[in-house]
């Protein structure tokens, strides 16, 4: 049964309401942890840089293919927290997926089932701000997976490095080419090295590095408060 989810409420109220209605232990564990205080500086907040590789862009029709995650603590990337998981999805991959993500049918057949992967992912996100590049993908696939696996959506605080860049360049009337907002192109703006794309953990680490560069060049570094970044 799909439980009601009151998306018009403030996120912390959504969390408390969802917890009262939740009967799944994994989701309840996530929901018991308060969300981050929006008025705290980044240096006092733990972030989880997250990337999904998918078979397409429609969360209701397409499938999650892999998950990559790395934490940021006290303004530093914690590589020891790196986590990468391929998902054992239904059906065979088409050639376009294999070319883009370099994940074969044999590799995905050895991956985790989606439920097992999310049972491990949600505790890693509890109490953290989720950092992504192009939030539409991660937000929609996160929520769709929660609906599918746990019967309800869940509240997440997301920071989007692409949206941060859009705001910056828009103020300076420099929104010229949409390709400038691709992850590696934005990294180039800060003289960050190019990493191989479309690997979930690589992209999660690349996003974490980009975020810290944006903070240091466009804001007040890790003294920046969370509120203006979401």
Average pLDDT rating: 92
Task: Give the SSE order as H and E letters.
Answer: HHEEEHHHEHEHHH
Distance between the termini: 31 Å
Residue fraction in strands:
15-25%
DSSP helical segment count: 9
Q: What is the C-alpha radius of gyration, as a whole number of Å?
A: 18 Å
Q: Helical percent range?
A: 40-55%
**Low-pLDDT runs:** none
Strand order, largest beta sheet: 3-2-1-4-5
Based on DSSP secondary structure assignment, what is the total number of beta strands?
5
Let me know the largest β-sheet: 5 strands, mixed
Inertia-based shape: globular
Explain briefly what this protein structure is:
By secondary structure, this protein is α/β, with parallel strands linked by helices. It is built from nine helices and five strands; from the N terminus they run ααβββαααβαβααα.
Structure write-up:
The protein has nine helices and five strands; from the N terminus they run H-H-E-E-E-H-H-H-E-H-E-H-H-H. Helix 7 runs parallel beside helix 9. The chain has helices at 11-21, 25-32, 95-101, 105-109, 114-125, 135-150, 161-171, 183-189, 200-218, and strands spanning 47-54, 64-73, 76-86, 129-132, 158-160. By secondary structure, the chain is an alpha/beta fold. The model has no long low-confidence stretch (mean pLDDT 92). The protein is 42% helix and 16% strand. A five-stranded mixed beta sheet has the order 3-2-1-4-5, sandwiched between helices. The longest helix is centred in the C-terminal third of the chain and has 19 residues, at 200-218. Strand 4, helix 6 (135-150) and strand 5 form a beta-alpha-beta unit.
């Amino acid at each position: 049964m799909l439980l009601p989810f009151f998306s018009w409420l403030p996120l912390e109220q959504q969390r408390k309401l969802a917890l009262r209605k939740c009967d799944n232990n994994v989701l309840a564990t996530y929901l018991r942890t308060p969300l981050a205080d929006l008025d705290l500086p980044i240096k006092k907040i733990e972030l989880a840089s997250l990337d999904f590789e998918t078979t397409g862009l429609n969360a209701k029709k397409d499938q999650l293919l892999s998950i990559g995650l790395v934490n940021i603590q006290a303004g530093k990337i914690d590589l020891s927290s790196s986590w990468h998981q391929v998902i054992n999805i239904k059906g065979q991959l088409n050639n376009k997926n294999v070319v883009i993500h370099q994940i074969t049918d044999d590799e995905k057949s050895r991956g985790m089932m989606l439920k097992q992967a999310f049972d491990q992912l949600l505790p890693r996100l509890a109490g953290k701000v989720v950092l992504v590049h192009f939030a539409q993908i991660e937000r929609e696939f996160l929520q769709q997976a929660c609906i599918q696996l746990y019967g309800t959506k869940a509240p997440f605080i997301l920071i989007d490095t692409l949206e941060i860049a859009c705001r910056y360049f828009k103020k300076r009337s420099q929104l010229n080419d949409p390709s400038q907002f691709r992850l590696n192109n934005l990294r180039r703006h800060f003289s960050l090295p190019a990493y191989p794309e479309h690997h979930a953990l690589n992209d999660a680490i690349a996003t974490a590095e980009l975020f810290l560069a944006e903070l240091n060049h466009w804001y007040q570094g890790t003294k920046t408060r969370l509120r203006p970044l979401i």
